[in-house]
Amino acid sequence: MVQAESLTKRYRKAVAVEGLTFGVGPGEVYALLGPNGAGKTTTLRLLSTLVRPSAGRALVAGFDVVREPLEVRRNLGLVNGGMRVYDRLTGREVLEFFAGFYGLKGRAFREALDWVAGFLFLEETLDKRVMEMSTGMRQKIVIARAILHRPPVLLLDEATAGLDVFARRALLDFVKAYRDLGHAVIYSTHVMGEAEEVADRVGFLHRGRLVYEGSKEEALALGEGSLERAFVWTAQNVA
Amino acid sequence: MDFVFRVSWKELVQVFRDRKLVFSTLVLPVLLMPVLMFGPTLLLGRLVQQTAEKRQEVAVAGLPEEALRALEAAHLVPVPVQDPEVLVREGKYPAGIAYRDGVYRVYARLSGGVTEGQVVAGKVQNALQSLKERKVAEALAQKGLPLEVLSPFRVEVVDAATEREKASGLLGFLLPFFLVIFILSGGQVVAVDATAGEKEKGTLEALLTAPVPLFHLALGKTLAAVAMALLSGVAGLSGLALGGAWAHRFAPDLLAQGGPPLGGGLALDGGSFLGLSLSAFLLALLMGAAMVALGLYARSFKEAQSYLAPLQLLAILPLLFLQFRGLVEVPSWTSLLPIVNVALLMDALFKGTATPLSMVLTWGSTLAYALLALGLAVWAFGREDVVFRN
So where are chain B's domains? Predict the structure, then answer.
C-alpha cells in the first residue's frame, strides 16, 4: 500500500529525511518512531503530497506522490496532532464539505456518514458546531474527515497530542479497528508506549534516517521488552 | 466548478456565522455611510443657518450713524470700542469694524475652517454692501441717471455639461472611491480568514490533503472574497443612497448650504449599470486574488493584516488624484493602470462619457491583472515554503 524508496527531503542545507526505504502492507500498522525533529512529520508530509521529495520516490496505493498527487490524496487520509477543522461549521457540515471532494454526495454521503458515525461513535455530536465540542470530539471529527472516504492508507502523526485519557484510549482502539478493516496505517509518534499497543511493525527514525526496521516483537526483544530501550540502544549504536 | 463553489461556500458560511464580522462588514457601512457623507454637510448647514439667524455683538469704531443702522438691520449689535482688531483677536467679539478715511475694515478670525467669525463677517459685508448700493442708487437718482448705468451688460457662465454629467456631481468621483474602499475592506475579511486564518487555526493542512486541484482551491477562496467584497460594496453604497435620499427629502436647504453639490440625481441606463457592475466585479476579482495570495504568505491574522494595509494604501492613494481629472487631459494609457482605470471608467459611466476603447482597455487589462494575481495565488498554494511558513 505504501512504498518509499530512498526518499529524501532537504531544506536548503538542512536534511530533514534521507534515503528512507520502507513499505507498509494492507491490514498493517507501521509505527514510525523517533524523538521530536527526527523527520516523522516530514515523512508523512512527503507521503501525503504536502511537500515534494528532493530525491527518491514514494508510492501510495500504487500512485506516485510527485506525478499523481491527486490520486494519492484520493487514497489516503492524514491526521496530525495540530490539525483542526472549521469551528463555525457543524460536524455534519465539515464532513459533507470534505466528502464532496471524494465524490461522496447525496446517498453516498449519507451512507459514508452513517458508517463513520457508527465507527467513531459520533451520532450525538454531528449537529453541534465544532467550536462547541470537547477536544476529544473535535479530534474524532478530524479523524472522521480523514477516513470518510475509507482510504486504503491512513497516516497519523502525533495524533494523540493534547488528548485526555479517554480520547486517547478511543483513538488507539480506532487505529486497531481501522487496521482490522484491511487498511494500511502509518502511526507516527514519539510515545513508545502507544506504538507497543497498536503497531505490527516499527521503524526507528533518528536524525532523518531510518536506523531500524522490524516487527514489533523483534524490536521489543531488542529492547528487552521495551521499545524505548530498543530505540535508545539503536540510536546510540547503529546511527 | 463543483470544488470551486464548495470551497467558496465554506468560506462564506464561516464568515457569515461570525456575527461581529457580519456587523462590521455589512451592517456598519449602511449605518455609517449616511453619517459620514451627509452628517458633516447637514451639521455645517444647520450651524451656518443658526449663526446667521442669531443676533451677535460686533465691535465697532468710528462708524457713521447710517452704517450702525445697517448693521442693526442685519441682526447685529454694534458695540463701540477703542480697537476692534485687538478685541476680535482676543476672542471677545466674533467680528469688528473700523471706519477710517473712507474704508470699512472688517476684522474676524478667518483661519481654522468655518467659524462664527466668518459667518458674522459675511453678515457685516452684506450689510455694508447693501448700504453702499443704496447710497450709489441715491446719488444716481439725484443726478437723474438710471441705476442700469452701473451695469451696461451682464456676464453669465452656463454649465454646458449633459444633464447626466450635472446629476452625477461629486458622486462620480466619490462612488468609485468608496466602492474601492468597501471592496478592499469586505474582501479582506474573507481573504485573511481563508488563508492566514486557516494556517493559524490549523485547518489548512486538512484541506490541502483533499484531492482538490490548487487552481480550484485558489479560485474558490478568491470568489468567496469577491462575493464578500461586492456585498460590502453594495452595503456601503446602499448606506450612501439611503442617506442621500433622506437628506434630499428632509433637509434639501441645509444640504445646499453645507458645501458643493454631491449629486444625487444619478440616473443610470441599463448598459451603464451593467458596465458598472462588470467593472466592480473585475476590480473585486483582482483585489480578491491579490489578497488571497498575500494572505497565504502570512503566518497569522496579524501578519496578513500588516501585509494588506499597505496594499489598501497603494490602491486608495492614486484614487485621490482623480479629483483633479478635470484639470488635465486623461490619456488612453491610463485605462491600463490597475484600479485607477476602473475608477476612471466608473466616473465616465456615471457621466455617460465612457468610450468603447476605454471600456475594452479597462475590462481587458483588469481581467488580465486578476488572472495574474490568481496565478500568483495558485503558485503560493503550491509552495511548501509558503504554506508551511511558520
Answer: 2-39+163-387, 59-150
Alpha carbon of A232: minimum distance to chain B alpha carbons (Å): 30
Question: Is the confidence at residue A159, as pLDDT, over 90?
Answer: no
User: What structural domains and CATH numbers belong to chain A?
Assistant: 1-75+152-163+171-239 (3.40.50.300), 84-150 (no CATH)
A83 and B203 within 8 Å at the Cβ level: the answer is yes
Residues of chain A with Cβ-Cβ distance to B206 below 8 Å are 78, 83-85, 98, 142, 145-146
Best of A17, A84, A128, A135 to mutate (most B CBs within 10 Å, chain B): A84
Query: Which pLDDT tens digit goes with each residue over B315-328?
Result: 888 777 777 777 77
Higher-pLDDT residue of A56 and A159 is: A56
Q: Give the nearest partner residue to B6 out of A78, A82, A100, using CB atoms.
A: A100
CATH classification of B59-150 is 3.40.50, yes or no?
A: yes
Kindly list the distances between the CA atom of residue A168 and the CA atoms of A137, A159, A165, A171, A226, in Å, as whole numbers in the listed order: 11, 9, 5, 5, 20
- With CA atoms as reference, the chain A residue closest to B205 would be A83
Interface contact A126, partner B, CB < 8 A: no
Strands (E), chain A: 2-11, 14-24, 28-33, 55-60, 63-64, 76-80, 153-157, 184-189, 201-206, 209-215
A48 interfaces chain B, CB cutoff of 8 Å: yes
